[in-house]
Amino acid sequence: MNRRLVLAGWIVGCSALTVLAASLAVLRAAEPAAAPVAPAAEQPAWHRCFLRVQANMVTPAEKDLYRDSVTLSLAGIAGPYRVYLNGQLIAEGDGIPDEPRRRFKVPKGILQKTVFNVLAIRIDGKAAASGIRQPPILAGYFDEVIMDRPWDVIRGELAADDARLKPVAEQPKVASYIETDFRQSSTPLNQNAETMPGRRLSPAESLKLMKPADGLAIDLLMAEPLVAQPTHISFDERGRMWVSQYRQYPYPAGIKMISRDKYYRSRFDRVPPAPPNHDKGRDIISVHESTKRDGVFDKNKVVLEGLNMANAAVYGKGGIWVMHTPYLLFYPDADGDDIPDRDPEVRLAGFGLEDTHSVANGLAWGPDGWLYGGQGSTTTSRITRPDVDPPGTPGVYFEGCMVWRYHPTKKIYEIFAEGGGNTFGLDFDAEGRVYSGHNGGVTHGWHFVQDGIYLKQGVDPGKFGPPANPFTFGQLPMMKSRNPIPRFTHDIAMFEGTALPEAYLGKLMGADPLHRTIVSAERYPIGSTFETSTSGTPLACDDIAFRPVFLANAPDGSLYIADFYEEFIAHGQNYQGQIDPTTGRIYRLRGKKSTLITDVNLASKPTTMLTGFLSHPNRWHRQTAARVLGERATKGDRSATIFLKALLKQPNTHPALEALWALQQSDALDELTNIAALNHQAAPVRAWAVRLPGDAKTLSPTMLAAINKLAMVETDAEVRAQIASTARRLPVDQALTLVATLIKRDDDAKDAFIPLLCWWTIESHLDKHRDAVLALLKEPSAWNPAPVKEILLPRIMRRFAAKGTRSDFLACASLLDAAPQDDHRKRLIAGFEEAFTGRALPALPTELAVALSKSGHASPALRVRLGEPAAIDAALKLASDPAAKLPDRLTMVTLFGEVDEPRSVPVLTAILKGAKQPIELRKAAIGSLLRYGDAAIGTEIASLYVELPAELRPSAINLLASRAASSVELLKLVEAGKVKVADVPADMATRLKSHPEAKIADAAKRLFSNEVTPDQAARRAEADRIRKVVAAAPGDPYKGEPLFLQRCGVCHTLFFKGGKIGPDLTSYQRDDLGTMLTSILEPSAEIREGFRNYSVKTKDGRELSGFLTDSDTAIVAIRGFDGQDVRIARADLVELKPMEASLMPEGLLGGMTDQEVRDLFAYLRIPQPITK
């Protein structure tokens, strides 16, 4: 048979990448004549490539995530095809369009280690001429290889056992890919044409494989088709079960993914509209009732259907509340007939959709009457209240995991606690503490306190970004486990029912979908929080598809379990299409000998009878009764108020605590009753008696005095922690009154929560009420309590030093002067030094320099500032020493730009000329040379300019333009073409054209005379063009990151990368393409406060421009387009004048290809950092 080799080229830039199979045929070695064969046009074509894959794709593991997550993505095949991998058929079909792509699972065991695996795609005769128009993609869980290089093509039939379809040891010369060809995945994904579900058993078969612990029994309550993909269970006051069925997951209906990162965080082409005008999906909210009260749910109703990304629902406060990302919806249902009275109200908007397995979730009624929810680690929200906030409201921005809450009648939205695990599901225990699980190891979960700031995911910032407040200086920990635990307890609930044996009462119950178990754990009070230890496995299952994802204390006293029922549970696999949206089960875990509660319809109880349920042994009854009493009171039935006040006086925690909650929800908690509750013998009652009035964010004088009196004598750490949380919500005088009392307790210095909660209260007032904060330390005795010495002193000093304005540094000096003892000064200086870890020490006011010197702990840099000859000699030596630590060298190099030391000029020049010196050191050297007026400096830098790396050229241009003599050198470079006109900022060109020296002004006018400012019509046309470019094809955020750092990162920070010349873009509305285009194409149209450009002239002849980073009566600090701060004494100023033009240049996108534009915007619009 004749054989031909075809070199198939992927033609880059075409809308369809065509394989020129026929025209590029190259005849192989001649063979003997054979029997007649079909014409070449009718013969099949075998397209081959060779892949040596990453080790994790072929290495077995206990949880075989990576081998189970290999897929092949195909597109652009015109006719019937079959796909073989190492001779095994893995896919076939009748053809695939160019879009959308179709993914196929690569079965485990076919790919082989260390060899070149053969991927062959056979295309039938007539279709073979069209070849494969889109490059195939082999993807693992995190990485992918786009096979867009020439493929080997063979004409004719091949048997499956043909040697040419088998792996080869040596790398072929064509069509081969190796491990380094894989990149971090960024190709947008779409919902696959067919799902690739895993193995499954019938509900009855799965039930037989359940292994409840001794004394326990498991009941199957419902299964598919009645329920599928359940992610949330709640109960209304009639004892009915509401189930949220997340059947649309993972792809939102009606919108298209346009970019993503390796963690499956995606950007879509638009924000989906809210119901009733939404894109119809498959999600369902259903309600289920046991009409015979026998534990069998015989009445089942779909209440809402066609929803799109609806993962949680609760009933109460007059209707149905649904987490329908990106919206919190309220469906009014005043008569409770489960038929909404009208279209839903959008109460909150702006929850992130970037990762649909981490969207806002876990709706739960708090005992205080607020609606609580969680947000996962890989989404970002910007919350507005459409029925309250005016158009254009920027919203409440938060990146990553947190707990939020919303008041249904006051319409207030708050972030309750920042950080935590990948929050999914919330649970309130009997005392009203809120918890969530975790999708990592180390901990069973998180105990959240009001206004707490927790480390995101329990790991260092990287994938999840740093804390929102850079002056947090510490985060609250997760609950420490006393024993090693496997990953993970995805959702947790404190079991506080009646239908499990008593040994389980109060236990932490955790759903572990990865190991297909329900685990239990002990809780041990440790100060203001808890530690845990695993105590058992109440339920295990041998069905590989059993995936418990949500637990709920039920009205019947048992524990309900939502089973997502999937063999493949990792969200990346679900995005790949390895999911079955038709399966799901709900189980009940109970004691074999336990009696289920049948009296569960609290809605039918008279109000006077309902108060009796506040003492019920089942937690659900107590907390639901409190909520229903509150709802009835707000509708006019206040007959329970007198009974509630009597119950509050009872000595036991329960029902006194429930009575307090019911009074609060009834708007019947008067101040006298609240103050009396502050003296209750049960600590949880006292804690809530502090928290509830604090929600108003101000206290009456009487209430403040009562809480402060409690703070003086309170013995319970949880109560003290709540006082600290409440303090942070109050006006400065009230907040500091409470903190001043709390920080006197030595034993709280080691508490996990209290010291940091106090610190954050203090920190929140340092900018506007500095004197009030420092007044806390007015008396020498106030410096001695352990929380002050160990926690607060170093942090206050570090905060002032890190902020770094002149007034902040003067506050540092005041603290050092006021410190009563050397131990206090040491702690202050430790905080000061920590502020400059890894970065250079800036210029310090004389007052601080003197204070540091008097302390006896003056640093080498400080001694240079004080003019000590020996220190100056040592500093010059250190600056020149390549073996010294870079931060130390940076400090000294920067220092010589702030003190007059002519001997530093040759040292600085040598550093600049040293090609092997670190870039940041060379940049600092240029900044320091700017101080010195020697004309030879400009001449030297001009001669070096063409050899300087791109990162240093802006600083060199800035220096050359700063003085008359060196400006001449700059203009010579421009005229010679060595400095591009575009590299000279517009404000600098304007300044040179108006220079007082005629030769400079004339040359500048000649060289910069062709500047053209686009008119509005041209800007609009360019904006429309870019919109079309961005929408035309996907962008790659990983390729966009270096473009950002090159084009934007010199000035702007995104997450924790980039410069600090312009505004930080992290919380900017980067999902709004129109707003971004306006800022890019017309940067001077709207200049953010604090970033106005200023022109500066000094007595020593310097001319600078930039924005003010610091200013007081003594100095100004100007930051130019090179990112360097220059501090100038006001006495040395000739002129300081604001300019109308932005420091940001126009033409930022000039010279970029369309794909580069798409990649840049894909990066600019990512919700969270993609690299560390």
UniProtKB/TrEMBL annotation:
InterPro entries: 6-blade_b-propeller_TolB-like (IPR011042), ARM-type_fold (IPR016024), Cyt_c-like_dom (IPR009056), Cyt_c-like_dom_sf (IPR036909), DUF7133 (IPR055557), Haem-bd_dom_put (IPR013427), Quinoprot_gluc/sorb_DH_b-prop (IPR011041)
PROSITE patterns to which the protein is assigned, alphabetical: CYTC (PS51007)
Cytochrome c domain: residues covered: 1035-1168
Gene Ontology molecular-function annotations: electron transfer activity; heme binding; metal ion binding
Keywords for this protein: Heme, Iron, Metal-binding, Signal
UniProt signal peptide: 1-21
SUPFAM superfamilies: ARM repeat (SSF48371), Cytochrome c (SSF46626), Soluble quinoprotein glucose dehydrogenase (SSF50952)
Pfam families xref list: DUF7133 (PF23500)
Protein known as: Dehydrogenase
